[in-house]
Predict the 3D structure of the following.
Amino acid sequence: MSNGIKILFGAVLGVLYAACGLLQVVQAIFGTMESLEALFIPGNIFSGSVLLVIGTVFLTGVRKLSIGTEEGMPFIYVGILFSVGIGLVELLALCALGADAYLVGEWADWSAADAVNPLLYLAVIGVLGLLAWGKEFFRGARAA
Amino acid sequence: MMEGTCPLALLAAGTEAKVTDVRAGRGMQARLLGMGFCPDARVTVQCADRGSIIVSVGDARYALSRGIAMKIFVGIAKGSA
Amino acid sequence: MTREIRIALTGNPNVGKTTLFNALTGSRQHVGNWPGVTVEKKTGKVSRNGCEFEVVDLPGTYSLTAYSADEVIARDFILDEKPDVVVQVVDATNLERNLYLTTQLAELRTPLVIALNMADMAEAQGNPIDYRKLSGFLEIPIVRTVGTRGEGLQDLLDAAVKEAKTSPHHEHTIGYGNEAEEMIAKLTDPLSADRTLSGKYPLRWLAVKLLEGDENVLAKVRGGAASARVQSILSSINSDEYEATMADKRYEAIAAILPQVHRTNTRGTTFSDMVDRVVTNRYLGIPIFLALMWGAFELTFTVATPFMTVIDTLTVWLAEFAVASIEPAWLGSLIGDGIISGVGAVLIFLPNILILFLILALLEDSGYLARAAFIMDRPLYALGLPGKAFIPMLIGFGCNVPAIMATRSIESEKDRLISILVNPFMSCSARLPVYVLFAGAFFGAHAGGVMFFLYVLGIAVAIASAKLFRSTILPGEVSPFVMEMPPYRLPTAMTSLMHMWSRGSMYLRKAGTIILLGAMLVWALASFPYGVEYGSAESFAGMLGHLVEPLVAPLGFDWKVAVALIFGFLAKEVVVGSLGVLYGAGEESLTDALFADPSLSAATALALMVFVLLYMPCVAALGVIKKETGSWKWTGFAVAYGIVVAWVLAFVVGHLAPFFIGGA
């Protein structure tokens, strides 16, 4: 019944992830767009590629749903899980870097802003999706 | 009720079928029979877009390489796709 | 007053035998959610109500006709060791296939009890099983168990005791139809003449197995009193046909019972199927796998940093304190420079290693590991390995010893040998300290990239070697890929943390034993003969190092590195431990000491890391290679091949690197 919302949600997240991923990879190779740093999109081939993968999962789901096959739904769900999972990894990494800077006494020079990247803040949207549809999805997991 | 038989490897994803014959040679034959691929078992192809396929037999899911799936012959039950 | 009762746990793969075993005996054997976790029989003891039990956990098998090395272990134990009771662990959510093995076990006439495991899951799925009724049909006692929660254990032991005390029975056998029964009768006749055989196994079972063409039973008959007559009967029939029809009859018998004891409603598309459609997607499967690996990498190396800083600070402080305050001075030096610097240099990496093992535990417990094998099947096939070989490769990131054992579930001997020989190139956790240390000291911000390169290099060398072996010394077809995909399960924090700890504590034990010994040995070599300056060229360590130095000099390594590499054979962490001792870290951390050494450049450091990655399996890995291949020739080959590959690649990397990193 809420397929429309899921398609929209998947499309928005998919485009955001894919776009940020593309920008990160381009930035890492050419390193020319300074304005991107201000948007917290640092150049990095690895995390850029991960963003691209997550974006593609969402967009594949959207494509399948929009031509009317229910098969697209798992892609949206797995995309959400993926987004939240990797976001969690990034959050842990951020905390770890901060803690380390504090321990070696470089706390004053450290700024969380340097470590923020799309994998982290896009996951916040993913969490919303998990809150909305997580139950529905995991009901299957428990029965399986 | 059967429309002839064909190797399991040739079925499209989502197709349900009934095993008619398994001809896999020593060892592998026993393994496949033990896994539930015996004549009359109902199987469903879950995923068929790689070098190997995933097939369900009852509630179990198996990955089979195409080579093995060519040796399991199935009849497509009437009524299913 | 009572003798010990020996119970063998058998059953299909991944039905929860080891979980039940752990619950019964209080052991902590490794469990996971993929078929083939247990590849060796494991024994545990338990005593209940004045009864002593020896419980044997066996590898999973689909039938009593064994196909792979782990199945042979399971079959041979049941056939030849004659346990007092065989407990078949049955997955209640997958009854039909599990009962197929039951029909074969029943023919053996061994006392048999069924543990209807995962009964809670079957009930949750709306498929409760009337197991009392089922027990009546099969004439086999059935106990409802839930291994994960330890339910039904007492009942199971009680049933086992009762069954062990009853004389052999199970007259309930399956009729295989006129034609087959005639053949069975024909075969039984000559078989009864073979006293040794008929005394050991039921005649009907022997005849059935012969009719199926079971190689193992045929080998038992060969040379015996019945050999000639049996062979002449068998030569007139096509056993493939009989095997199929007899299997058919067994399933028919099961199908006749099942509808009466539970509602067989096969669920359509499950949660696992939905997830599989995404993660095994033709285009997305491998990218998703790589993205997950990236996440694992990030966790292992970034998240551990603050913990490492704490341990590092502590060890440096302790070593300094020991050297300064313990009298006499030589003892202070042994404790400070030797033990604390050496073991501490290795302990720093405990956080990385714990996280790495946690990730591997999550991979194993969730069920994704089997999918990784599935998506890698095609690329690996092209390189001459079956997809199944990918599982040992991933486990090798933790430790090569269990990884090499895990190759037992690979059916073809050649495939298995190749998998064993290339496994040491998968970068195990013991090599990680070397990378973190040198990459951290010489590559600063690019350390992550360098470590990633090393892991990829390890995989690349493993794959290239597999291809090489396949096209030269071990030619042949890749065995076909057949593997069960277990349903996904949410790993519980408790079990995953337990796995992490059981493997992580092995690392700690290693630090306390072999690495400690290595560190003390290196310290002694560096301090004697009496009177020389600690760690100087005149010490034993210096002499040994200088002896070997010419061999590694082309790679840019000096004598200290040479000594560290020699002792690294004990365990690869010892490379770091030895350097910790030789550089006598003292007031500065080992990282700074290495960086300050003029004989080490970034290029040399890279060459060293490449060398350590590839040069040879550690003692423990060599031991298991010998055990699994059963050949000194192949073990020696693994060592020689590793050293040659390592030397060549380290040479190339060391001499090419300056062009890329600008001598940084």
Chain C touches chain B through 51 residues (CB under 8 Å). Residues 287-363+396-402+428-461+503-661 of chain C form one domain.
